[in-house]
């Protein structure tokens, strides 16, 4: 199995709403993932050199149904269940439940669809994004409501905070009369600071998003746009291409998406699978490892790829275990996946990778 890393120098142009800013991106990487190789079925138990399992305390009145996003800090584990519980669960590092934010409604401090969340550095305030009411709700670390910030005039797909207490909004592939960009950077009062990265023309209005498009690696914000195979980095309100996953002929191109214009996302997903293209691409990155997972060769095979940035070694396999999630977050240097158990809270599995 051959996975090569090619270092390239790329110059690309991106326009903001305020000016025609040229953004240089150098020292980016192309990571080639060879899907024609002999790929076997495995899971994290086969590739882990060390592993720790954590059981989360049960709450019979408000159990976790599905984990949409997780953030782990030095003292807390935050888990968002957007669809089923519509709650943010807060645990200590031993799995003891410390708090549950469940504020469903239309009143002050309430939400109808908790689509995303983040933890504000310094204050440890909890920020929950209501995808339906298009607003951010601020709570103290103990769950008391503080205030909200509305963005009713624009669609926001996801968001994250930065170390400088500004917010980065991912607008997905939606455009408006005022903007043709993926990213909007705002201050804590909602004022626009800058817009970055023009939306790819043939992807406009096609709404299939990665699990967590915006992620943080120390002081760097990482961003994977909708239906894209390129990961960008945002530092000091500047954006640059960081690396790109190359799947060869298995990645859908311009011709495919132009033919899909106007179709429902479920139909587009069906066509991606039927045409044997990579779909539902996600990513994570630690200090030493780049990870991506995706579906290919049918809708029951979830592929996982790990690349060691230091040694250049890589691991590629697929899994059909529907009870075991791919990695969904990173705690220090360990990846973390979820084991779903019927009628109980999911179990968390922390693991480090064995490089042969």
Describe this structure in words.
The structure is a single chain. The protein has 356 residues and is mainly beta. It has a single domain (5-353), classed as 6 Propeller (Neuraminidase). The chain has three helices and 26 strands. It has helices at 44-47, 254-260, 265-274, and strands spanning 5-13, 22-32, 48-55, 69-72, 76-81, 87-92, 97-101, 114-119, 126-130, 135-139, 145-150, 158-161, 167-170, 181-186, 192-198, 214-217, 220-223, 230-235, 238-246, 279-285, 289-295, 302-308, 314-319, 329-331, 334-339, 347-353. The protein is globular. The chain starts with a strand and ends with a strand. Mean pLDDT is 89; it is low at 1-21.
- Which CATH architecture? 6 Propeller
H/E series: EEHEEEEEEEEEEEEEEEEEHHEEEEEEE
What is the level 1 CATH name? Mainly Beta
Helix content: under 10%
Rg from alpha-carbon coordinates: 20 Å
Indicate the mean pLDDT.
89
**Strand order in the largest sheet:** 1-2-19-18-17-16
Report the sheet with the most strands, covering strand number, pairing sense and barrel closure: 6 strands, mixed
SS content category: mainly beta
Within CATH, the superfamily carries the name TolB, C-terminal domain
* CATH fold call: Neuraminidase
Enumerate how many helices there are, as a single number.
3
**Count of domains:** 1
Overall geometry comes to: globular
Q: How many strand elements?
A: 26
State the distance separating the first and last CA atoms: 13 Å
Strand content: 35-45%
User: Any low-confidence stretches, pLDDT <50, length ≥5?
Assistant: 1-21
């Amino acid at each position: 199995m051959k996975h090569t890393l090619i270092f390239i120098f790329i110059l690309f142009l991106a326009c903001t709403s305020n000016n025609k800013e040229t953004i240089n991106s150098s020292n980016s990487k192309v990571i080639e993932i060879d899907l024609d190789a002999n790929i076997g079925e495995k899971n994290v138990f086969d590739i882990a050199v060390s592993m720790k399992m954590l059981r989360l305390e049960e709450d019979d009145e408000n159990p976790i149904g599905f984990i949409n996003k997780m953030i782990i800090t030095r003292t807390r584990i935050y888990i968002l269940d957007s669809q089923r519980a519509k709650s943010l669960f807060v645990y200590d590092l031993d799995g003891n439940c410390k708090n549950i934010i469940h504020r469903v409604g239309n009143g002050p401090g309430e939400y109808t669809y908790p689509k995303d969340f983040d933890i504000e550095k310094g204050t440890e305030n909890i920020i929950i994004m209501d995808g339906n009411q298009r607003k951010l709700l601020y709570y103290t670390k103990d769950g008391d409501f503080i205030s909200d910030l509305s963005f009713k005039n624009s669609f926001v797909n996801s968001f994250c905070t930065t170390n400088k207490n500004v917010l980065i909004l991912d607008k997905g592939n939606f455009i408006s009369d005022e903007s043709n960009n993926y990213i909007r950077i705002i201050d804590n009062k909602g004022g626009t600071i800058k817009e970055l990265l023009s939306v790819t023309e043939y992807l406009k209005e096609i709404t299939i998003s990665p699990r967590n498009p915006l992620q943080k690696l120390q002081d760097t914000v990482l961003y994977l746009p909708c239906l894209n195979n390129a990961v960008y980095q945002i530092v000091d309100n500047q954006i640059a291409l960081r690396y790109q996953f190359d799947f060869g002929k298995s990645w859908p191109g311009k011709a495919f998406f132009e033919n899909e214009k106007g179709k429902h996302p479920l139909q587009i997903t069906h066509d991606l699978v039927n045409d044997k293209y990579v779909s539902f691409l996600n990513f994570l990155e630690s200090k030493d490892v780049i990870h991506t997972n995706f579906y290919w060769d049918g809708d029951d095979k979830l592929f996982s790829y790990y690349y060691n940035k230091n040694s250049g070694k890589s691991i590629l396999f697929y899994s059909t275990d529907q009870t075991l999630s791919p990695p969904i977050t990173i705690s220090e240097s360990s990846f973390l996946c979820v084991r779903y158990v019927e009628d109980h809270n999911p179990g968390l599995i922390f693991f480090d990778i064995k490089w042969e």
